[in-house]
UniProtKB/TrEMBL annotation:
GO molecular function: ATP-dependent peptidase activity; serine-type endopeptidase activity
Protein name: Lon proteolytic domain-containing protein
Lineage: Bacteria, Bacillati, Actinomycetota, Actinomycetes, Kitasatosporales
One GO BP: proteolysis
Pfam families in UniProt: Lon_C (PF05362)
Domain (Lon proteolytic): residue spans on this chain: 160-251
Organism encoding this protein: Streptomyces apricus
């Protein structure tokens, strides 16, 4: 049998580099133009739970006399690109090094549901649960019976459970203040975040570093943060904003009373 060997075909160095570069260029093109599984977030709106939101009082109490309060208790939010937004590499690179922006995994921002409607419904349900739990925790803290005192919470265009702590504090301030005739806020603008359960336990939330920026932008000088998220809150902490870590509603009330009266120890991160 005859074997015939062909002469090896050789590429010049420049030709070889050109051929190797083709798949790299293709991958870069895909990376630049393909949507990525991220959401872009920034500081969102804040709302004073002791006041009104879009013309309606956030807290309405019947069955007991509500106090006139001074100061503010501001719940905080983040704004993120929608669940159906297409985020590309250029968008990520633009926001990556900005202190007033964050690049977050989409699943961390929208863990439930695939469509905009599903996510909106889920967030609305979580907000309703948070409000009911906040009322229960606040009335239990004050030793009030829910059948005797009725509390209605209303906050438009906000979803999720992270305003629970501030709702509870607002109810406590409206009904009892600092317990001796003064305001729980001491006349300050106080902001914060945190979920709450029926026993008054405060839970962690997301986007704390962005929420501190929203709080300071809107005049807050004190920020209540779930203790587990102290390090996150300190990451981009705005000048002039004091962090107070909390683990329970009782902790939060006690810290604000100590701050207002200038007595006792106020915890710090």
């Amino acid at each position: 049998m005859d074997l015939r060997f062909s002469r090896p075909f050789r590429l010049s160095r420049s030709q070889a580099l050109g051929v190797c570069a083709l798949p790299v260029v293709a991958l870069l093109a895909v990376a630049v133009f393909a949507p990525l599984p991220f959401s872009l977030a920034q500081p969102g709106m804040t709302a004073d739970v002791l006041g009104e939101n879009k013309g309606d009082p956030v807290i309405t109490i019947s069955g007991a006399e509500a106090r006139e309060t001074s100061g503010q208790l501001r719940m905080t939010t983040i704004e993120a690109t929608g669940p159906d937004a297409r985020v590309h590499l250029g968008d990520v690179l633009d926001d990556w090094f900005r202190t007033d922006r964050a690049v977050m995994p989409r699943d961390a921002v929208y863990p439930n549901g695939d469509s905009v409607r599903e996510i909106e419904d889920y967030n609305a349900e979580e907000m309703k649960k948070s409000q009911d739990t906040a009322v229960e925790a606040a009335l239990d803290h004050l030793g009030e019976e829910s059948g005797d005192v009725t509390v209605t919470l209303k906050l438009a265009d906000v979803g999720g459970p992270s305003a629970g702590l501030l709702f509870s504090l607002g109810i406590v301030d409206k009904l009892d203040g600092d317990g001796s005739g003064g305001d729980l806020t001491g006349g300050r603008v106080i902001a914060g975040t945190g979920t709450i359960d029926a026993d008054g336990k405060v839970g962690a939330v997301g986007g704390v570093a962005l929420k501190t920026q929203a709080a300071r932008r809107d005049g807050a000088t004190v920020f209540l943060v779930p203790k587990a998220e102290c390090s996150d809150a300190e990451t981009e902490l705005p000048k002039g904003l004091r962090l107070i870590p909390v683990t329970t509603l009782k902790d939060a009330v006690g810290s604000l009373v100590a701050l207002e009266k200038g007595r006792g120890q106020v915890p710090a991160c």
